[in-house]
Amino acid sequence: MFRLDPGSEGTVRLIGRLDGDEAERAMASFAGLDGSIVADCSELDYISSAGIAVILVTLQRLNKAGHTFRLHPVQPRVRNVFKYAGLTQMLGIE
Question: pTM (2 decimals)?
């Protein structure tokens, strides 16, 4: 199960598992976000290639509008997925 909780202005919390089963619903949730965003991934337990696609589509959409999209903090096991995909620098993962 995946949940996206809007926080204070410009932040959202990603909670649970962002996988193929949740990708369509997650895409709809991310589509409602506007402006520069920092996604708190401290409670994101798992991300699949479908979840990465959702993140990349969101990044591209926000960048085209002149905004930023950053993931921080990120759990080590999720950070490793982004690292192996070569996306840590693009996504501003520290």
Answer: 0.92
